[in-house]
Amino acid sequence: MSTRLVDLVQSSIDDFLDEQSPSIVGVAPELGAFIDYSRSLLSGGKRFRSLFCYWGWNAVSSVSDSFDPLDDAISPEDISSVVKVAAGLEFFHAAALVHDDIMDSSDTRRGMPAVHKSFESLHIDSGWSGSASQFGMSGGLLLGDLLLGWSDELIDAGLRLVHDPAARLAARAEFTAMRTEVTVGQYLDILEERSWLGQPESEHLARAHRVIVFKSAKYSVEAPLLIGGAMGGGSLSQLGALRAFGLPLGIAYQLRDDMLGVFGDPAVTGKPAGDDLREGKRTVLIALARAGLPTTAVRLLDELLGDPDLEVDQIRMLQSTIRESGAIDKVERMIAHNVELARTALVDAPLSREAREQLGTLTDTVINRTA
């Protein structure tokens, strides 16, 4: 089902953009860039949020007492509702990426120019007046806002197909909570990059962990599961099981992401080597590294971290310093611990057997990914 779902979500995304194109381009032909850049950004990705949304729905929507779902018993309308909501989550994710790249001054996304850099190139290639950089950021912000609006449209379209009014309201409430949490979590992320020096050393790790929870863990895994589960009319115990699985897996997901942000292969991640080091991300990895280094090494790490002009040899030196601190082993242990919590939450959970198996497989994919 996972491969089929990904194809259905992509088709829903393409159809939606096809529907929007005439009205957008009808305003002005130049606005075709909004459709083109949206299509490019939404044509790839791992679709984790779509998959977690579907399996959250599947987990509580079993048609048999033994929680073994029967595919031929799932109505086309039910599938359509989940696919539209999943597509809406992908639009929300795309909006978050556009805004995130602007805030982090990231030039690339998935090996391609970030959206604001595409707008910047459009300005340069067209020979327009004024600052190309400012135009790029302004265009990116507006496209990100448009993607947010479109995500709402798709979410609403999917929820209208849900027959149970209580389930519709519950799913919308989970989406609204996710939208708030990821926004304030993003602020906490940029706050830590600027305010860490004024915070007690003893709080650095806890504050970095707080960013993980609200910027990524809930939004990447827990919220899509709960949105799907709520759509399916999940009981309190079922939604509780999804929450108990989703939060620790989301934490492990972001811890892996932070490792890739420092040590990932650019050819695989689509981002420059050590990108998080140039951006000055105050992650759990960095907090643990600082705690395990002598004062002189900490001073050097603090001096270089966040320098957008770090050269390759400086990146390698910082990577070596972090390795020597023992932080990598500690983060790997944290990942393993959270994965174990997630797997334990699935054991005997009141969820469909197929969903539990698929969520177990997704756990492996999420944690062992290289991008």
Describe the model:
The chain is mostly helical. It has helices at residues 2-27, 32-41, 48-60, 76-103, 115-126, 132-159, 165-195, 204-231, 236-263, 266-269, 275-279, 284-291, 295-304, 312-324, 327-346, 353-367; strands at 108-109, 112-113. It has two domains: 1-44 and 75-161, Farnesyl Diphosphate Synthase; 165-371, Farnesyl Diphosphate Synthase. 75% of the residues lie in helices and 1% in strands. Strands 1-2 form a two-stranded antiparallel sheet. A hairpin with a 2-residue loop joins strand 1 (108-109) and strand 2 (112-113). The two termini are 23 Å apart. The model is unreliable at 63-70 (pLDDT under 50).
